[in-house]
């Protein structure tokens, strides 16, 4: 049982952390959380099954096509649901516009793809250190993405421009950074990351339209508890969430595990609204 | 002052008032009248649909106050409460947990449990950001249905449980239909009472101008608790009626789509409106029925509709049909304060002593915004506070009005220390303020915005307000008259009925003063009231401030227009980098070499 808890917990934790990273990447340039993060995760699984199983593309091509498609969905999110409401951030209209887009994607998938979970193809019939593909793939994807982001942010001009916008939007624009272009780029990046989360965890989550809500909810917990914009915090919180959830799953059963996760989440948030790795915001009057 | 003149200026003679009331009531009466006639058609199918719309509206009438008035994005709240109310009522009447009880008792229990659950779901809003709160409410909705699914011995799990049937005249289809209609009508009345009261205005202030709400003595925790209790009670009852209407409930009936439907109904109808959400609830319930071939796409269409509303008509239909607010306002309006009214508005000599600020130090991170400041605001005098940008003037004001907690030093009001970090306590002890950037509810009328300033004057309880009892109605009338008086005093009475976001910047500055005067304040703190005003308007403002102080009010005036400050202040303090540069009468300050060097210029 311990083995199952750890293997499922790490795999799901890594997938949740990836969704959290997608939330963070979108937030960094727009100050907006988008419900489409969960839809991207779902699409990653569905696209993988569609491209590889249904259309018979080779695994690598299927992966690239999935990432490209999800990046496009990310860009569409920016254009349709984010850009028009950025001017009135204080009214929180983005909550509703991104939720609406997310539901549209979900419902479209349900009708045009399938309302029952579809199998996800196995790509590499090789065990890594004796671990099956569906368990190691999310972890490897998570390590690659976070490592890649650190490299991007620290060692490239574009990455530094991202950081500048995340730090101070106005100042970055005053310096002549192409804020709009970078925002679109970050949404494309987040789209690919969200898609990768769904693709990598496809072996466990399957290609299922209703994965949107679990991805949204469990992917947001690491964002909140790991503190907004903190990708390392998101990974720590994501892995912890995955292990806790699977432990509760095996010990007390499905429904009570979600009740347990939710209760812990709410209580933790009410105690530290800024997350475990952040400072409380100063109040502006 | 002559009352007749004031009434005229609000475009409302005593004869017109009832007419306006009738015009406001007409759409409600028309809608419910039509619904009452429906049984004549004897079409049971339509009876079911309209009955469902009525049941939904019972819930939406409460949610509307949470979402449309208080601006809380409680997305999952609606379906969570509907499910909870449905299961509580069904389980209690079916007797799967305890001995079966009467359906009416079960319905009442659903109301009580709904109210409690609603507060539990809603109050994280006080600590969490909007998106976090939205996510947690969706989480609650998921949890409720999952528990219903898992707790098979009580809820029947996936198989479900029989809904309650109400006996006697309500056992027939049309009998129960009228029961639902009556509940909907009652909830319309209750929620309209709240919406048009000081509670409703306070919710709008929390939504659009939270800081100003606190300065007006509005406590967000208290207001949100009250409104979540009310919404939860009607939401729970709505769930019970829903279960009875469905005759049989399973967890599948309570998907997030329903919550979305409730949400769109409020947004389409328009935030801060009652009639708008009522109409759109009916329309949205009818929509899938008339578009049957699209049934599979219903969720998609609702979501697309939500997106379209948010992007295209964020104000909803209430705004779209607000023709009155499209008529151009008179141009070249001149603000004409009328100081003669002030004595009728402000009672004389109420402050027993000054506000004393002693050695206050306040830093943000490593920056000392105020570094050992002392000054006194004396009743009946205007104290000017000037200094370069960033010298800490507004920080001083925020420390007095309780937003900031000084690191050391005290702020006292006639000897007693004022609690810091509690801005909502200031209005009650007669300290009123204005803001550097006017904080107003743009969608509400000028009159309503001024009345927000008098929130703490209301003594009637929430229950009295909900039921529109005598004391509440009398208070509301007095508050309205007082607000008209305050508007007349600052010279804005002709604009009382205008939407506030149509006013010019200078008018908003005077509006904020009127709102502050509602309190009958002992002290008035003005944060750059002359910024953005024209020369002649500054003259009028100066005369108004002087007249206010003459009635015994102690005024703190933060300004960059030093002419105005030197003209009307008895005492002036000059700040530089958080320290007192100079103190004294205007004449002394004008001659002070340090002040000339640092601020005034030679």
Largest beta sheet of chain B: what is the strand line-up? 8-9-10-5-11-12
Tell me the strand percentage band of chain B: 5-15%
Largest interface: A-B, 40 and 43 residues
Structural class of chain B: alpha/beta
Low-confidence stretches of chain A: none
Q: Which geometry of chain A do the CA atoms define?
A: globular
Quaternary form: heterodimer
Averaged pLDDT of chain A? 89
The structure class of chain A reads mainly alpha
Major sheet characteristics of chain A: none
End-to-end separation of chain B in angstroms reads 47 Å
CATH third-tier fold name of chain A? ABC transporter involved in vitamin B12 uptake, BtuC
Helix content of chain A: over 70%
Please give the radius of gyration of chain A in angstroms. Answer: 18 Å
Average pLDDT figure of chain B: 89
Fraction of residues in H or I helices of chain B: 40-55%
Number of helices of chain B: 25
**Largest β sheet strand count, sense and barrel closure of chain B:** 6 strands, mixed
Strand content bin of chain A: under 5%
- Record field, number of beta strands of chain A: 0
Count the DSSP helices of chain A. Answer: 12
In short:
The complex is a heterodimer of chains A (285) and B (602). Chain A is an all-alpha fold and 285 residues long. Chain A contains twelve helices and no strands.
Describe the structure in your own words:
The complex is a heterodimer of chains A (285) and B (602). With 285 residues, chain A is mainly alpha-helical. Chain A contains 12 helices and no strands. Chain A has helices at 2-30, 36-54, 59-82, 93-112, 133-155, 157-167, 169-174, 179-200, 202-205, 212-225, 231-252, 254-271. Chain A is globular and about 55 Å long. The mean pLDDT of chain A is 89. Chain B has 602 residues and is an alpha/beta fold. Chain B has helices at 3-9, 16-37, 44-69, 77-94, 103-122, 130-150, 152-155, 173-195, 198-208, 210-215, 220-246, 256-269, 275-290, 298-312, 316-320, 342-345, 393-400, 446-452, 462-466, 470-490, 505-517, 535-550, 562-568, 586-591, 593-600; strands at 161-162, 248-249, 355-364, 367-377, 382-386, 408-413, 416-417, 431-433, 523-527, 554-558, 571-576, 579-584. In chain B, a hairpin with a 2-residue loop joins strand 11 (571-576) and strand 12. At the A-B interface, helix 4, helix 10 and helix 12 of A face helix 6, helix 12 and helix 14 of B.
């Amino acid at each position: 049982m311990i083995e199952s808890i750890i293997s499922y917990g790490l795999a799901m934790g890594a997938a949740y952390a990836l969704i959290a990273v997608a939330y963070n990447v979108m937030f960094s340039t727009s100050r907006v959380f988008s419900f489409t993060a969960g839809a991207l995760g779902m699409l990653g699984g569905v696209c993988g099954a569609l491209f590889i199983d249904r259309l018979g593309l080779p695994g690598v091509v299927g992966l690239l096509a999935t990432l490209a498609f999800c990046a496009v969905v990310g860009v569409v999110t920016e254009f349709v649901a984010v850009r028009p409401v950025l001017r009135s951030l204080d009214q929180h209209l983005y909550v509703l516009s991104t939720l609406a887009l997310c539901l549209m994607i979900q419902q479209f998938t349900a009708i045009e793809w399938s309302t029952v979970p579809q199998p996800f193809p196995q790509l590499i019939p090789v065990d890594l250190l004796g671990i099956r593909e569906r368990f190691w793939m999310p972890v490897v994807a998570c390590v690659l993405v976070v490592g890649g982001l650190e490299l991007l942010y620290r060692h490239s001009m574009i990455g530094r421009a991202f950081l500048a916008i995340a730090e101070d939007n106005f100042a970055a624009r005053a310096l002549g950074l192409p804020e709009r272009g970078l925002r679109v780029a970050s949404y494309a990046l987040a789209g690919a990351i969200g898609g990768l989360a769904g693709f990598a965890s496809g072996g466990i989550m399957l290609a299922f339209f209703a994965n949107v809500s679990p991805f949204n909810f469990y992917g947001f917990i690491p964002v909140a508890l790991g503190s907004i914009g903190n990708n390392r915090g998101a990974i720590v919180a994501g892995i912890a969430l995955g292990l806790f959830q699977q432990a509760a799953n095996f010990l007390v059963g499905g429904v009570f595990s979600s009740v347990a996760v939710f209760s812990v989440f709410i209580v933790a948030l009410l105690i530290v609204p800024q997350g475990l790795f952040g400072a409380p915001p100063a109040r502006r009057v | 002052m002559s009352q007749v003149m004031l009434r005229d200026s609000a475009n409302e003679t005593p004869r017109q008032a009832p007419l306006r009331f009738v015009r406001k009531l007409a759409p409600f009466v028309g809608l419910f009248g039509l619904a009452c006639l429906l049984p004549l058609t004897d079409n049971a199918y339509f009876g079911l649909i309209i009955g469902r719309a009525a049941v939904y509206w019972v819930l939406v009438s409460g949610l509307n106050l949470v979402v449309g008035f208080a601006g809380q994005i409680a997305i999952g709240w609606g379906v969570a409460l509907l499910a909870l109310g449905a299961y509580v009522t069904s389980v209690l009447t079916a007797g799967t947990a305890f001995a079966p009880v009467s359906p009416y008792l079960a319905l009442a229990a659903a109301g009580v449990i709904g109210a409690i659950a609603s507060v539990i779901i809603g109050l994280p809003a006080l600590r969490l950001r909007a998106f976090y709160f939205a996510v947690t409410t969706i989480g609650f909705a998921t949890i409720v249905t999952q528990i219903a699914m898992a707790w098979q011995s009580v809820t029947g799990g996936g198989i479900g449980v029989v809904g309650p049937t109400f006996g006697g005249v309500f056992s027939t289809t049309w009998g129960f239909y009228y029961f639902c209609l009556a509940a909907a009508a009652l909830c319309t009345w209750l929620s309209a009472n709240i919406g048009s009261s000081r509670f409703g205005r306070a919710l709008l202030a929390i939504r659009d101008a939270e800081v100003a709400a606190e300065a007006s003595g509005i406590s967000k925790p208290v207001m949100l608790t009250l409104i979540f209790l009310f919404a939860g009670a009607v939401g729970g009852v709505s769930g019970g009626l829903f279960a009875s209407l469905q005759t049989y409930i399973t967890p599948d009936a309570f998907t997030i789509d329903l919550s979305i439907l409730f949400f769109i109904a409020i947004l389409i109808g328009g935030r801060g409106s009652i009639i708008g959400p009522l109409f759109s609830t009916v329309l949205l319930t009818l929509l899938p029925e008339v578009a049957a071939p699209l049934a599979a796409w219903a969720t998609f269409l609702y979501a697309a509709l939500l997106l379209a509303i948010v992007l295209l008509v964020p104000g909803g239909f209430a705004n779209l049909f607000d023709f009155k607010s499209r008529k151009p306002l008179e141009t070249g309006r001149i603000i004409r304060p009328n100081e003669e009214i002030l004595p009728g508005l402000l009672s004389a000599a109420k402050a027993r002593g000054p506000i004393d600020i002693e050695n206050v130090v306040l830093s943000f991170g490593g920056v000392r915004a105020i570094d050992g400041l002392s000054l006194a605001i004396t009743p009946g005098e205007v104290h000017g506070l000037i200094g370069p940008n960033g010298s800490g003037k507004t920080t001083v004001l925020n420390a007095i009005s309780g937003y900031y907690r000084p690191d050391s030093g005290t702020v006292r009001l006639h000897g007693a220390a004022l609690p810091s970090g509690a801005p909502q306590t200031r209005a009650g002890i007669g300290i009123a303020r204005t803001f550097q950037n006017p904080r107003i509810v743009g969608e509400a009328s000028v009159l309503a915005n001024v009345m927000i300033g008098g929130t703490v004057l209301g003594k009637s309880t929430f229950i009295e307000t909900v039921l529109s009892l005598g004391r509440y109605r009398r208070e509301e009338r007095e508050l309205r008259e007082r607000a008209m008086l305050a508007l007349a005093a600052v010279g804005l009475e002709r604009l009382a009925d205008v939407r506030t976001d149509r006013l010019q910047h200078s008018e908003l500055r005077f509006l904020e003063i009127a709102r502050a005067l509602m309190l009958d304040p002992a002290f008035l703190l003005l944060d750059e009231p002359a910024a953005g005003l024209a020369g002649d308007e500054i003259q009028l403002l100066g005369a108004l401030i002087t007249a206010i102080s003459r009635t015994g009010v102690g005024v703190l005036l933060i300004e960059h227009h030093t002419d105005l400050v030197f003209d009307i202040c008895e005492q002036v303090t000059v700040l530089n980098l958080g320290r007192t540069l100079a103190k004294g009468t205007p004449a002394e300050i004008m001659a002070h070499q340090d002040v000339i060097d640092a601020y005034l210029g030679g």
